[in-house]
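Sequence only, no structure available. Ideas?
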Amino acid sequence: MEPLVISTWKHGIPANEKAYEILSSGGNSLDAVEHGVRVAEDDPAVLSVGYGGLPDAEGRLTLDAAIMDWNARIGSVICMEHIKNPVSVARLILEKTEHVSLAGEGAYNFAITNGFQPDILHTDTSIKKYIEWKKGQYGRSQEFHTDEYRVKTGNGLGINEDGNHDTIGMVAIDKEGHISASCTTSGTAWKLHGRVGDTPIIGAGLYVEGDVGGAVSTGRGEECVRACGSFLVVEMMGRGMSPQEACEYASKRVIKLNLLSHKNRDHDYQVGFIAVNIKGEYGAASVREGFEYAVFDKGINTLNKSKYIMNEKYEITDL
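Reply:
I predicted one. Tokens follow.
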């Protein structure tokens, strides 16, 4: 099998480089997706992941992450603080415990017991932006992921056109044909403390079935959880859809359930999916225009715009 790695958003480009380096040297897909997304976790310029991520409404930076391999082994951490690489803690849960998820203080204590060091994850930038939000500069807090954006019928900025705007998720297939997936985030900026999105929820933020393929999601986690989005993508691939068809199918399901459940609430959101099947075919789709994904295939790393379902654009203002 020719190795391949696909990940979400512009910050997937450097993440892919690390993952593909592991794959091309004969490493397995689980190592690739762990160390690939760690690149984004360690980058303070990525405001929605790891170190330097934007805090919650109480000024606390809580991290979520998950990882899954071709043998249905899973691990995740929820609302973990003060540990720099939550995806590696999630992998340790996968490998060392019979549990599938640890949360909050329990996740932190598990990490410390297993050799992780406590760290300060705030940066001057994240603190400055939090103070500005407290002064009322950035509008609503809980509904949007990192940036305040709205649907716009005319021409506006694409959702990822001028920076990093969301969770990173990654799916990789190695030379043995084994597929793994990972995702990691600091969650919605200014969220209510304790809020959990799709990232650490197996079947929502990511899912892998070893003889079918793998998928991850990005965007507003609440909408993906409602649709069991990543599981749905893999399930439809197992029923014969291509990765592209399955991602489009899941995006349509997200739209349907949002309208069903939120008749008197906000419909301005983005959700995107990426997927790889056991043949090494890949696909991507999103609810609205603006989702970008990175693919490293046959030695070439590219950033691509996904297909989308609803013909609406976003205007976005960076924090």
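Residues 36 and 315 are 30 Å apart (CA to CA).
Hope that gets you unstuck.
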